[in-house]
TrEMBL record:
It comes from the Bacteria. SUPFAM superfamilies: Actin-like ATPase domain. This is Type IV pilus assembly protein PilM. It holds the Pfam family PilM_2. Gene3D superfamilies: 3.30.1490.300, 3.30.420.40. It comes from Aerophobetes bacterium.
Length: 354
């Protein structure tokens, strides 16, 4: 038996998922989350993050030798590209030339990885295949490694958070995996993954998250950051019935209005992504949205997005179908916190490839 630890480093908290592996099976062993001390409403400093990681590993006595860590989607370039059908060895040689068309940095300053999806149907003579291309600047990887090494961690694997999220969703019992928008609503940003039956079609990062909602509430209601965060969590978005019963100037109504206006830019970016998908796929439409991340727990966010985008929206529990001990975890608890740990679980599963 062996262990793997998926480590997601956010700007709001550090999340850890520990799995116990035995041959081809695995079981959930532990979950943990630790808040990063807020730094005057701005993203946490490197020292605050390092201290939070150190505290998390010390408090739960986590093995530092089996860590798979993730780099945020904003630091990576992920594209699905079509290349001539070729063997893996040939693609390894050709990928740098192919990548130059999509990577906006000198190619010798970027670490490249690829994953072959499948052959593309084509009526032309030249056969092609779909490939997920991932590029991360070397300096980003070095900074990530330095942060972890500062607390004595030397990761087995460094993955990309949106790819880890796709992997756990693809492994899940979810019936619908074609034309799905997988949305990670985080603290300072949102990762959007558009999926079709071949895998990720589009992965992009939108610089809007729970932090921006809290800042808008704080500014417009003249509150400090912690007070604004508290009433955001308490009131969230009102349902239609609640809105009709609420007085226009009540605190709940004001918070609802501020959040709706703040989310408008996120809605606009999601719609643009949907339109791009349709333009590239002969008019195909996204059928369902699946939410994960801390901000997916904002009251009413699922109903609001469903109404604005005109499609079903649900929160994803990645622990459905994952083995665990009922003595250590209850199904209610995992259902309640699952969306927070989706990326961490996806990272921990990379141990199966070591």
């Amino acid at each position: 038996m062996s262990l793997s630890v998926g480590l997601e480093i956010g700007t709001y908290s550090i999340k850890m998922v520990e799995l116990l592996h035995k041959r081809r099976s695995f079981r959930l062993r532990r979950l943990a989350q630790l808040r990063i001390p807020p730094a005057k409403e701005k993203n946490a400093s490197e020292n605050s993050i390092a201290e939070a990681i150190r505290s998390l590993f010390s408090r739960y006595k986590i093995d530092k030798r089996c860590v798979i860590s993730g780099i945020g989607g904003d630091s990576a370039i992920v594209r699905r590209i079509k290349v001539p059908l070729m063997k893996v060895k040939e693609l390894r040689r050709a990928i740098r030339w192919e990548a130059e068309q999509y990577i906006p940095y000198p190619i010798d300053q970027v670490t490249l990885r690829f994953h072959i999806l499948e052959e593309e149907p084509s009526e032309k003579e030249e056969r092609k295949m779909s490939v997920i291309l991932v590029g991360v600047r070397n300096e980003v990887i070095e900074a990530h490694l330095q942060l972890l090494q500062k607390v004595g961690i030397h990761p087995h694997i460094i993955d990309i958070n949106p790819i880890a999220l796709f992997n756990i969703f693809n492994l899940s019992n979810s019936k619908e995996k074609d034309r799905v928008a997988l949305v990670d609503l985080g603290h300072s940003m949102t990762n959007l993954i558009l999926l079709d039956k071949r895998g990720p079609f589009l992965i992009r990062t939108i610089s809007i998250g729970g932090l921006q909602l809290t800042q808008a509430i704080a500014q417009q209601l003249n509150l400090d950051y912690m007070a604004a965060e508290k009433i955001k969590e308490e009131y969230g978005l009102l349902t239609l019935d609640e809105s009709e019963k609420m007085k226009e100037k009540s605190i709940a109504a004001q918070v609802d209005e501020i959040i709706r206006k703040s989310i408008d830019d996120l809605i606009e970016e999601i719609v643009r992504s949907f339109e791009y998908y349709a333009s590239q796929t002969g008019g195909s439409t996204i059928k369902e949205m699946v939410l994960v991340g801390g901000t997916s727990y904002l009251k009413g966010i699922d109903k609001f997005l469903s109404k604005e985008l005109g499609l079903p929206v649900k929160r994803f529990n990645p622990f459905e179908g994952i083995a665990y001990s009922p003595k250590e975890f209850s199904s209610d608890y995992l259902n309640k916190v699952g969306s927070i740990f989706a990326v961490g679980l996806g990272l921990a599963l990379r141990r199966r490839e070591l």
